[in-house]
Structures are given as C-alpha cells and as structure tokens.
Amino acid sequence: MELPLSNWVSAVSDTPKQPMTPTETSELRSFGRRRGRVLSPRQQRLLSDVLPAVRPQLTHPAPEQLGNLYNPPLSEVWLEIGFGGAEHLIWQAEHNPAIGMIGCEPFEDGVAKALIAVEERGLANVRLHPDDARDLLRWLPAASIARTFILFPDPWPKKRHAKRRLISPHLLGLLAEVMRPGAELRIGTDIGDYLRTILIAFQAEPRFCWRASGPADWRERPADWPATRYQQKAVREGRRCYYLSFHRVDGNG
Ligand SMILES: C[S@@+](CC[C@H](N)C(=O)[O-])C[C@H]1O[C@@H](n2cnc3c(N)ncnc32)[C@H](O)[C@@H]1O
User: Fold this and answer.
1) Is the CB of 110 under 6 A from ligand 1?
2) pTM of this structure
3) Domain coordinates of the chain in residue numbers?
4) Could you confirm whether 49 is annotated as catalytic?
5) What is the structure's pLDDT at 45?
6) Can you point out the beta strands (E) in the chain?
7) Topology (CATH level 3) of domain 5-248
8) What is the pLDDT of residues 16-64, one digit of tens each?
C-alpha cells in the first residue's frame, strides 16, 4: 500500500512549515568551499590534462543522444550530483560499464579523486562537470537521464542558511525535465530537518512520486547503494540515515 506524501510529511514533522517558493530557493550557492589543500603535482596534471577530455562542453549544444558523450557511445546515462570523494560514482561506474555516468562536484579535491580513479581503473564511462549541477541540468536534453543520485547534500543546518539547501521545488523542476519517465531519483540524508525539506519539495512536484510503503523502504540502504564518506561519518556519529527512492512519473503529471 502506498501512502500519500502528505502522510509522510506529517509523520516526520509535528508542524510542517510552508515550502519556500522557487524564487526564494533558486540558484543560491548550495556548496561550501571549492578548494581544499594544495594539490599534488599529480592532481594538478589530472585537472589540467585529463579533466578537459572528460568534461561536457556546456558552451556547445548537448548531443541529441546523450550517450554519444562516451566513446564508444552508451545507451543509458546516470547522473550524480555532489559526488564528494567519488566513492559512489566510481563504484557505480565500475559495476555498470554499459552505463554512462556524469558526476557533478564543484570541490576540486573531489574532482581530483574521481580523476585518479578514472585514470587508474581506465573508466571510459565517466564524465565530470566540475561545477554547479544546475548549469548542467539546463544543458541536458529532455528525458535523457535514466537515474539520478543526490547523496547526503550539504545540510546547511543554521536556520538563516536553510534556503541554500540544494533540494527544492526549483531543483526538482529542473530534474523532472531531464529525467526519463520511470527514472529513479535516489536521495540520502542523515538530517531529520532536511528529510522534511525534501518531502515538502516533492509534495510540490507532481512529476515525481515516492513509492515507499513502510519504514523499511527508507531505513535500509539498498545493496547497490555503496556507503559514502558522509554516510559513514553519520553512522559513526550515531545519526540515522534515510535512503529515499523517488520515480519520475510517466507523462507530465
Ligand atoms: C555533504 S557533501 C556529500 C558528498 C558525498 N555525496 C557523500 O555522501 O559523501 C555534499 C557535496 O555536494 C556538493 N554540492 C553542493 N551543491 C552542489 C551543486 N549545486 N552542484 C554540485 N555539487 C554540489 C558539495 O560540494 C559537497 O561535496
């Protein structure tokens, strides 16, 4: 039995707040720093020599068949937004060689980590957008993405920063355009208040549905969802993690 999303929203919050309007949440910077430690010579080489070859050129139109970004071309493309240390991105790329992965991450260290794995493991099915995912979403062809992952987005815990949270009705609107009917959108969080933000955002976007029928659907991490650095940190620090799976509905509503 599927419960309406509104039941879940009330289940996770005594007093659900009104969702922020898209204009309040759209396009505020949703990430922290872009640079961390000084890069090693190897990391610098990867960023200057290898990144240009795997970076989609947003100044040119996207290929009509998105799988043509890869050589050889691939028929299905999955997207990861905010891949951090790239643990999940690389795991999916290695376990699904027939799928093209696009990872978005503005933090340079994370991009360098992904590039090291791409080079060492010879992964031809990875493309990297080293910047804000929302620019890539506007570039992608309609209905071109078969799966999207947003794992442990920055929590922005202070009340005055909450409008920087990546997941909003605005972002879901962009995703609804580029995801195929039936495509899965996986989201992980370890912050109860962010869970509420997520469920309220989905309530406002009828092009996605949540098929959860009971707590086991969001308490247990699926076998094909490897642990990320932030998830491991949450578990170490005793926080419960929520593993959410939404689907792009057929048609436009
Ligand atoms: C809390 S970290 C989680 C990283 C990783 N997914 C994990 O679970 O370990 C969130 C990541 O999302 C990235 N991020 C935030 N806003 C983004 C955006 N608009 N586009 C792409 N990445 C973004 C941040 O740079 C950061 O690395």
Assistant:
1) yes
2) 0.93
3) 5-248
4) no
5) 97
6) 76-81, 99-104, 126-129, 145-151, 179-189, 208-210, 242-248
7) Rossmann fold (3.40.50)
8) 444 444 444 568 999 999 999 899 999 999 999 999 999 999 999 999 9
